[in-house]
Amino acid sequence: MTDHATGAPHLRPGAHLLVTGGAGFIGSAFVRDMLARRDGTRITVLDKLTYAGSESNLAAVATDPEQADRYRFVRGDIGDAELVGPLVAAADAVVNFAAESHVDRSILDPEAFLRTGVIGVHVLLEAVRREAGRAAAGERETAPRYLQVSTDEVYGTVPDGHSVETDGLAPRSPYAAAKAAGELLVRSYCITYGTDAVVTRGANTYGPFQHPEKLIPLFITNAIDDEPLPLYGDGMQRRDWLFVADHAGAIEHVLRHGVAGEVYNIPGELEVPNREVVGRLLDALGKPWSLVRTVEDRPGHDRRYAMDGSKLTALGWRNRISFDDGIAATVDWFRSNEAWWRSAKSGDWDAYYARQYGTRLATSTEA
Ligand code: NAD
Ligand code: DAU
């Protein structure tokens, strides 16, 4: 598959990528998978290491001498223009995973979402624009390509049918609004400055290394400990579930083959209500439904997300992991990696948990 305009794929062999937010859940899967292919690709990860990021997510890379040679980790903020400038100058492409990613936290404290999701994206885009100018002046070979990792949440709740990339954006949480704003900045740079950028809108992602604040890992780890599982509202909200390796693979595919200025949906493999997800997790773990508690709903809770994936299919990408296989692999991973998730549930975790779930669980009812 090639770029329609030039006939060439967008990444040269041995390309150097700047992966921002690469120590988080999806970003680290992208880095691990790309470096494990041993095709000469070099990656610099820039990550602030918020509560959600950990260098331990990249231990497989750092401890393999061949991969470690092609990998560098820089701790820092995408909003720091002085740090970002030279990193973008050294890169053939920038893949931006960095974001505050949890909807519930955006409802509690929105500010950090805007700083990273809007100002941080602007800083990255400015650095890319400067490098494009250098390329135009013959000071570097090509302009860096920019990929913005976005989300299906920018469409807002979808009562029926499937969102297509040309649908209007109607975000309903501070998280989703920040993601929509970041995307629109990317769009404006493509149109105004001719920036070579693409956007992906991924579905609800699950798998190994996901922070236990999110539904699937929270419920797996609470169930292992026989702790209550706080199901919001009637539990009939629907999500379309995408295994993390497929999400990372689709992002790489769009980076290589996506047409500049375009947006690509990355749907999942199964659209199901939360209740059914929880039932499957409990079955896989051999735990009883009585652990599930109905708690006060998330404010502004989106009822359903569902995307049409035909544009990505036409670009040549197909997901590989079914929901059943993905859930089995995820449950196995959390069972075998207790030290990892217990560490993620330390530090500020108890304070967050009390704030988010204390009153909810105290007033919960049978599910
Ligand atoms: P995550 O919270 O696990 O990881 C985010 C990473 O970004 C962390 O390593 C964190 O330290 C880093 N980070 C945060 N702010 C930063 C900053 N200012 N500078 C540098 N690094 C910073 O998130 P995730 O679930 O891996 O999501 C990655 C991206 O994918 C996000 O942009 C998110 O919006 C998007 N997305 C996620 C999903 C999902 O279901 N998880 C679905 C679609 C899209
Ligand atoms: O759709 C893509 C989005 O998926 C990403 O952009 C976000 O970064 C990611 O966090 C995720 O957002 P959701 O809000 O859909 O995921 P979360 O795991 O928080 O919740 C999934 C569903 O489960 C949602 O309907 C809310 C519900 N839920 C969640 C939690 C944490 C509960 O019922 N109880 C809970 O305790």
Outline the structure in words.
With 367 residues, the chain is α/β, with parallel strands linked by helices. It has a domain at 16-206 and 243-268 and 303-321: NAD(P)-binding Rossmann-like Domain (Rossmann fold), CATH 3.40.50. The protein is 43% helix and 16% strand. It contains 14 helices and 13 strands. The chain has helices at residues 25-36, 59-62, 65-68, 81-89, 103-108, 111-136, 174-193, 215-224, 244-257, 274-285, 310-315, 323-336, 338-344, 349-362; strands at residues 16-20, 42-47, 71-75, 93-96, 145-151, 197-202, 204-206, 229-232, 238-243, 263-266, 270-273, 292-295, 365-366. The strands form 3 sheets. Strands 3-2-1-4-5-6-10 form a 7-stranded parallel beta sheet, with helices on both faces. Strands 7-9-11 form a 3-stranded mixed beta sheet. Strand 1, helix 1 and strand 2 (42-47) form a beta-alpha-beta unit. Residues 20-21, 23-27, 46-50, 52-53, 77-79, 97-101, 116, 120, 149, 151, 179, 202, 204-205, 211 line the site of nicotinamide-adenine-dinucleotide. Nicotinamide-adenine-dinucleotide (NAD) is lined by residues 20-21, 23-27, 46-50, 52-53, 77-79, 97-101, 116, 120, 149, 151, 179, 202, 204-205, 211.
**Oligomer type:** single chain
Sheet with the most strands? 7 strands, parallel
Q: Helical region count?
A: 14
Attached small molecules: nicotinamide-adenine-dinucleotide, 2'deoxy-thymidine-5'-diphospho-alpha-D-glucose
- Output the strand order for the largest sheet: 3-2-1-4-5-6-10
Specify the helix fraction band.
40-55%
Structural class: alpha/beta
Indicate the mean pLDDT: 97
| Low-confidence sequence ranges | 1-7
